[in-house]
Structures are given as structure tokens and as C-alpha cells.
Write a structure and sequence with these properties.
With about 160 residues, this protein is mainly α. It is built from 7 helices and 2 strands. A two-stranded parallel sheet has the order 1-2. The protein is globular, with a radius of gyration of 19 Å.
Length: about 160
């Protein structure tokens, strides 16, 4: 559905497949999408990741300011995240079915992944467990994920 994609994605797919693409056949859509150049896809990816990083920085800065953090701390988070790094994310609800424990159960391996300067990887975890999702809440409570302030892995 059109509301499932970003404005950047909507522009790209509209250029490639037309305004009424959602009414097309899977075959015609596949053909049109295959015609999108690698360069356009890479530009889309780069712009989308920059948009995500900018949004996350701004949102976290505002949250810190609202919670009474110092102006320096709020300003510092505007330097977090790298728009050129591989970004793994959990968004909206933090739930067990998303299997975050697969990523977080081996902390040494995760630290190694997050601190390799040749292959930068970063995590964005947003949202919280549903009030009725006790297993999801337990994952957060038991330290599988820290809901405290953002941290950088040591380089």
C-alpha cells in the first residue's frame, strides 16, 4: 500500500512503475523495478539511511532535552550514528517474535561486530514492549537490551 513506504521510496517507485503501480500485475511491476539502475537504487539507499540517522538524532536529542539532560548531552547525540554504516533496527514494538535475543545473546560477538572500524555496524532499537507482552518486557528488564541513554561501542 502507498502508506507503507517513505516519500523517497514512493518517488522512486512512481518514477519506475507509474502512479497507479499498486494496480499493476506482479509481472509488470517486477519488470519495471528491474529496470531501475543500480545507481538510482544506491542513491535511494544512501538518502534513506541519511534520513533515518537525521531523524533518530533529532528525536533522541529532543527526548534528552525533555527529560532534563544537559544541553551538552542533547547536542552530543546529534553526532551519534553513521549514515554510512550498516544499520540494524527494531522499530515500534519490542517483541519476542522479532527475535532480538538472536542478535543480543552473544555479547562478545556483538561487541566485535559493533566495533570493527573496517565494517561499521550500528543498532537502532526504538519502541517498547506492549503492556501485555510480559516476555518482551522481560527481555528488556533482564538486560538483553538497555533502555538507558545511547552508548557507543568502544573503537
Amino acid at each position: 500500500m502507498p502508506t507503507w513506504d517513505s516519500a523517497l521510496a514512493d518517488d522512486l517507485w512512481t518514477q519506475a512503475c507509474g502512479k497507479d503501480r499498486w494496480l499493476g500485475t506482479p509481472e509488470s511491476l517486477a519488470r519495471n523495478i528491474r529496470e531501475v539502475s543500480d545507481q538510482k537504487l544506491w542513491q535511494f539507499r544512501t538518502a534513506s539511511r541519511k534520513s533515518l540517522v537525521d531523524y533518530a538524532r533529532e528525536r533522541l536529542s529532543r527526548q534528552l532535552e525533555a527529560s532534563g539532560a544537559s544541553l551538552e548531552a542533547a547536542a552530543a547525540v546529534r553526532q551519534l550514528l553513521d549514515p554510512n554504516a550498516l544499520t540494524l533496527g527494531f522499530a515500534r514494538r519490542f517483541a519476542t517474535y522479532k527475535r532480538p535475543n538472536l542478535l543480543l545473546h552473544d555479547r562478545e560477538r556483538l561487541l566485535h561486530l559493533l566495533s570493527d572500524p573496517r565494517r561499521p555496524v550500528q543498532l537502532i532499537i526504538a519502541g517498547k514492549a506492549h503492556p501485555a507482552d510480559e516476555p518482551g518486557q522481560a527481555l528488556i528488564r533482564n538486560g538483553s537490551v538497555s533502555s538507558a541513554s545511547p552508548r557507543r561501542a568502544p573503537m
